[in-house]
Amino acid sequence: MSQETQMALEREVKLEAEAEFVLPDLTGVLPGAVVSVEAPRRLRATYWDTADLRLARAGVTVRHRAGEEGSAPPGDEPPGGGHWTVKLPAGDNRTGDNRPGEDRTSAVMSRREVDFEGASDAVPASVAGLVRAHVRTAALVPVARLTTRRVSLDLRGPTNAPIARVDDDTVTVDEVIGDGDGGRPACFREIEVELGPDASEEVARAVVNRLVRAGATEGNPVPKVLRALGPAALRTPDVGSVAFDRGRQMASGGVLVRGALAAGTSRLVRHDPGVRLGEDPEDVHQARVATRRLRSDLATFSDLVDSAWATHLRSELAWLGDALGRVRDSDVLLDRLRADARLLPEVDYHPAAHVLEVLGADRVEAQVALAQALDSPRYLGLLDALVDAANAPRLTPLAETPAVELAPALVGGTWKRLVSAIDDLGGTPGDDALHQVRIKAKRCRYAAEAVAPVARKPAGRLGRRVADLQTVLGDLHDAVVAEDRLRAMVTSPGTPLTPEDAAVAGALMETQRRRAGDQRRQWHKAWRKASKSKVHSWLR
User: Fold this and answer.
1) pTM for the predicted model, two decimal places
2) pLDDT one-digit tens code per residue, 167-220
3) Which of 89, 327, 448, 515 has its CA 20 to 30 A from that of 146?
């Protein structure tokens, strides 16, 4: 990110308050906390979204706010003042399954907050890019203007470290644009308790308890703009989840298809902003997983969906997966070698750092290519096609069959191909053959997980067992790739390595060779567990 961009994890609790509510003295609410009262401020914010409120419905906010410095009245802010903020759902970054904006285990709402400097006349490209996966080919337009009178309390620890901030906001809805729904408040008051970077949720609870005793109430933790926009902003997102808890036995194969495609598309869209920010490699990982699962699901459900339609989607997903894969493969390689380099003698740290720097050049090139792919019309077209697929897949008549009847055969084909690949290995299989087994194990796992909403325990057990096999063979593949990459680097005439660098590269190669040998001896154990009759007897 540029120097004009700042990113943080916002963790806050929202409460509601009546006009007569008086902000209580928070002295003593936390041991050793120092409470200071800031001067009142008037904040003017314009919120941007698509005409159908795609961002609001997905728990995403784009806002330009002015007036944070001092308490200038509306209209008195300097031209070009203020800044842009994009707020994105946070949650567990290892998955893409939670509904945006919700934390299922806590009253604390977590969001990634990214700030950009810029004037208010047009959405900057950097801001638009972060929400492009949600917006796609639609236009961003102003949808609401709010004025907030804010009184803040700042809580700091004995070392002046921020503990929490309490914002008492009186919000006036100045204008809501392009939406005819009723049910919007003209003015409301809310109290926000924002935690400091290192504060625990117990801090939030202590402060919230004091505020509740003073008359505030814990309400629905939705952003200000959602309250201003009214019911339209609370409608189902473009890609909603599919529930199977009720009527599971009656769900058709088509519902199963839609559920799988919705889950994969949601995961891809959710992690797109993180891929663009480049702060957490897990976003690239999850986006790549999304493309792989979607391709696998389309193959698993091949008899239930239109063939030409599915082939086109799988081809486009393969293109995107390749771009994501180059970055992800570099991340896996570098993370693996960094961990091993830390185990070397201290004298080898400097040459090891240079080896990693040389290998990292590929990652830089791959990231540039990925950024170009994400900004391309082809990618936006793919996203539009995936959203359409998640909501209305092109189904065959067979998709009307109850999913519980289809599930054993849908997974059975992937299982048979996995068994056949292992039967063909022979006594001393090569690494390439084991890699093919890993690919088939992954497809079998994805198929089992795709039907798990209706097949439940049997599918879950098979998925877990095959995932264990996939993990062992994945570690083997990563070790083989790392050793090959190091060897290619050392033997390349143009690689700028010193003798010390080459020696460290050799030591790292030996570590990979040893680990690969360990995994070659362990995969049989994982397969024995996966191939037990009770794991796969339900398949056809």
Assistant:
1) 0.90
2) 999 999 999 986 545 556 789 999 999 999 989 889 999 999 999 999 999 877
3) 89
